[in-house]
Design goal:
By secondary structure, the protein is mainly α. The protein contains eleven helices and four strands, in the order H-H-E-H-E-E-E-H-H-H-H-H-H-H-H. Helix 6 runs antiparallel to helix 8.
Length: 287
């Protein structure tokens, strides 16, 4: 059995990553609240509503930040069309996650499935206790045990470091117009959401904001941390090769959710923050 792949200061690196992502989450929430506050104050001043209006705006800005923090998991699940992973139908998925969580000392995230042939997975949620982990039916049906274990270990690493937390908060807080716009294109979406397609003009700004928060190096770090857990780099390297060859596009994935996925879920110019898959494979082969 291969020796665990872990730097000598792994615990220190984990603490650093967690603190960094906590700061990212706080910065994003403050920025989102500040935008609401500034716009609200301008409206209040133009309308001449006085101090009472300003107080109301302050309360609404704080409430908006709190709502984002509490609802990111549900928003991402709704945006991706994920459904709960029934244990009887996805037993291997449940068993692998449970084993990895026990080995890593993590609570088991809520598991979901996206009905799509693309090979991909995503995570969201502000903390390990409130995390959600979803995979496509294509990924579940195509990868062998060690390949799937490698992908899941990568995803759990992002939950552990709060990387998925900071990114999901950024997606919901900074790119909600694009989420609404993409949802408005779905035939099953209610008529209320369809007018939000107009908000798609804000996509370049939302993409720019997300790229200020998401660091592509985090994906490479999660690859390394994942194989530290599985102790088998060829498993994840093989999974990445399968994804590269068979495709990672997920038909129903809104472009703004691209940073949350294991690999780019389709054509999302301005939103995809992943390193090239070949670069990730080479990094694993060098371990």
């Amino acid at each position: 059995m291969a020796e665990p792949i872990s730097p000598p200061d792994g615990r220190t690196q984990l603490q650093h990553a967690v603190r960094r992502n906590q700061r990212r989450m706080l910065a994003v929430l403050v920025a989102a609240a500040a935008v609401v506050l500034v716009l609200g104050v301008v409206i209040v001043l133009l309308a001449g509503l006085g101090l009472v209006g300003v107080v109301v705006v302050v309360v609404l800005a704080a409430a908006a930040a709190a709502l984002v923090y509490r609802s990111v998991g549900r928003v991402v699940l709704a945006a991706t069309g994920a459904r709960p992973a029934e244990r009887r139908d996805t037993l291997r998925f449940h068993n692998l996650v449970e084993g990895l969580c026990i080995a890593e000392g993590l609570p088991k995230p809520a598991l979901y499935v996206v009905d799509d042939d693309g090979l991909n997975a995503f995570t969201a949620g502000v903390s390990p206790k409130r995390a959600v982990l979803g995979i496509t039916t294509g990924l579940l049906g195509s990868l062998n045990r060690v390949e799937l274990e490698g992908v899941l270990a990568h995803q759990l690493s992002q939950i552990k470091t709060l990387d998925s937390g900071s990114v999901s908060v950024a997606v919901v807080a900074l790119a909600w117009p694009v989420l609404l716009a993409d949802a408005g294109r779905r035939p099953t979406t209610t008529a209320l959401a369809r007018p939000a397609v107009v908000l798609g003009v804000l996509a370049p700004l939302a993409g720019w904001a997300l790229r200020r928060v998401v660091d592509p190096q985090d994906e490479l770090d999660a690859d390394v941390d994942g194989v530290r857990l599985t102790r088998y780099p060829p498993g994840l390297a093989s999974a990445l090769t399968r994804l590269r060859d068979d495709g990672t596009a997920v038909a129903g994935a809104p472009r703004a959710t691209a940073p949350l996925w294991f690999a780019a879920p389709g054509d999302a110019p301005g939103f995809d923050t992943h390193p090239p898959i070949n670069q990730r494979i080479r990094a694993l082969e060098a371990l």
